[in-house]
Automatic annotation (TrEMBL):
Entry keyword Oxidoreductase: yes
PROSITE patterns assigned to the protein according to its UniProt record, in alphabetical order: ADH_SHORT, PROKAR_LIPOPROTEIN
Protein name: SDR family oxidoreductase
GO molecular function terms noted in the UniProt entry: oxidoreductase activity
UniProt family annotation: Belongs to the short-chain dehydrogenases/reductases (SDR) family.
Species annotation: Trebonia kvetii
All residue ranges annotated as the Ketoreductase domain in the record: 5-184
One of the GO BP terms on file: monocarboxylic acid metabolic process
Signal sequence, start to end: none
InterPro entries: KR_dom, NAD(P)-bd_dom_sf, Sc_DH/Rdtase_CS, SDR, SDR_fam
């Protein structure tokens, strides 16, 4: 890699976003670790720096363009133009369909759909100027299979898959690849012990090709490839990881 690439990872204080940030930093990429509360990003930044990497903590709500613009400016001032973006920040929701309200829909869609659109728009000029970019959107296997009591969430992630395919066409001519990873169930907040019993995890694992529930590191490895120089001809792909359905 001739220049130090700069990445922005959203929702990076914990879980999949933290794993992606740490993994990208191992490739020599300088990482903007963004989450709602900048203070919560310190742990991810510390782990990256302890490993010899470069990172900066950023606080912003991905659905708020003013906050996103300020965070992007700080990252750009710190490390330079941003040419890698992982739209990972997301919120899940388990609500029976008939109980879904406009307020809930607005909350879920603002984070899961408006967020990736706003953040991508705010860094796009850097990618176009470099004629090189990597965008990875974290969707969900529930967008492909449906998931009972997750209509707001799974439909929002379906929008992320469609957004990915559209942007791949629109941004490809600018040297920018756009892909999505629809994880299956991954240990972390959603799959935390208080949310799912060990017996349920074992039953779930028995249905998965690799016979185990996914880990954030699994997503981070797939993400690192999609953000690499080598992945220049991979775009508009939906790359299932650990239970995610692979569709092209
Ligand atoms: N864990 C799982 O089983 C699966 C997760 N996913 C997706 O992967 C992504 C990450 O999920 P996890 O790491 O499991 O969740 P997580 O809850 O551990 O991490 C999500 C992070 O996003 C941050 N965040 C939430 N709203 C935000 C906003 N408006 N602005 C900035 N940051 C915000 C949260 O503070 C949190 O740190 C999400 O998009 C989720 O929908 C998809 C499939 C399965
Ligand atoms: C939360 C989520 O997307 C799954 C597949 O569990």
């Amino acid at each position: 890699m001739t220049t130090t690439r700069v990445a922005l990872v959203t929702g990076a204080a914990a879980g999949i976003g933290a794993a992606c940030s740490i993994r990208l930093a191992k490739e020599g990429i300088a990482v903007g670790v963004l989450d709602l509360d900048e203070g919560r990003c310190a742990g991810t930044v510390r782990e990256i720096e302890a490993d010899g990497g470069k990172a900066v903590a950023l606080g912003a709500d991905v659905s708020d363009r003013v906050q996103v613009r300020a965070a992007v400016a700080r990252l750009r001032d710190t490390f330079g133009p941003i040419t890698i973006l992982v739209n990972n920040a997301g919120v899940t929701d388990f609500t029976p369909f008939e109980d879904i309200t406009e307020e809930l829909l607005s909350f879920v869609y603002k984070v899961n759909v408006f967020g990736p659109i706003i953040v991508t728009q705010e860094i796009l000029s850097d990618m176009k100027a470099e004629h090189w970019g990597r965008v990875v959107n974290i969707s969900s296997s529930s967008a492909q299979t449906g998931s009972s009591k997750m209509a707001a969430y799974s439909s929002s992630k379906g929008a992320v898959i469609s957004l990915t395919r559209t942007l791949a066409q629109e941004l490809g001519p600018h040297g920018i690849t756009v892909n999505t990873i629809p994880p299956g169930s991954i240990t972390g907040t959603i799959m935390a012990d208080e949310n799912i019993s060990e017996a349920s995890k074992e039953r779930l694992a028995a249905t998965l090709p690799v016979r185990r529930v996914g880990r954030p590191e699994d997503i981070a490895n797939a993400c690192a490839f999609l953000c690499s120089e080598a992945s220049s001809y991979v775009t508009a792909q939906v790359i299932g990881v650990n239970g995610g359905r692979v569709v092209t």
